Amino acid sequence: MPTRETALDRPVIEALVASSGIIFFGTLFRCPLFPVWISAMGLLAAALAIDSSLHSTPHWAEVFGISLKSKRIGLWLLIGCAGGTSFAMFSRISADVGALPSGIGHFVFAASAIGASEELFFRGYVQGRLHRLGPAPAAFLAAAAHSAYKVALFAFLPEGVAVDHFSLGFWTFLAGVAAGALREWSGNVIPPLVGHVLFDIVVYGERSLPPWWVWS
After folding, report:
1. CA distances for 7 relative to 2, 52, 57, 111, 156, angstroms
2. pTM of the model
3. Which of 48, 84, 207, 216 gives a 20 to 30 Å CA spacing to 3?
4. Could you tell me if residue 21 is inside a domain?
5. Exposed/middle/buried for 112, CB within 10 Å: 0-12, 13-18, 19+?
6. Would you say residue 99 lies in a domain?
7. Does 98 fall in a domain?
8. What share of the chain is helix, strand, coil (3-state, %, to 5)?
9. What's the pLDDT tens digit per position in 142-195?
10. In whole angstroms, how far apart are CA 62 and each of 8, 68, 167?
11. Cβ distance 199 to 84 under 8 Å?
């Protein structure tokens, strides 16, 4: 039988293993020095950690921070929608492409799925497993893991492509902290998830084809 101390540590270890696995994958899957299957070991580690969590927690929805009983869920959803849309418009204006998309392309559906998956993983799963460290540490650590993953995705760039890694990491972390706070205040991953989906819809609205960094 596991001791109480071991039982309390298990969710934190699962979150750290899953986060490290995703970051490992993001770092190496474009690395020319290793075959792609090496990076897939990171995904396997994350999947095994999540599987362990699902076996130790009675309800799968709890593992991913999904709750349909959150108080004032409508208010938190409105805040998530407003935050995601505002941040997306700021991003578009900064890139000088107009505040809102001129249309909706096919890539929006994939972008939305990617954004939702990131929130379920980082805000839902990782932040939820780290919650026993305290709400603030959980939100900051989940945001840091998300930021590290985003930067890792651009560790190896195609020739002629330049990325401001510091800016990417900073804004991802800042958005992650805001999303983490929303997840804590609402007791639910759904508001930040919806906000992230709206962000991706607005940012990538016109695209029919994915940007180079998706599936390349």
Report:
1. 6, 12, 12, 37, 39
2. 0.91
3. 48
4. no
5. middle
6. yes
7. yes
8. 70, 0, 30
9. 999 999 999 999 999 888 888 999 999 999 999 999 999 999 999 999 999 999
10. 16, 11, 33
11. yes
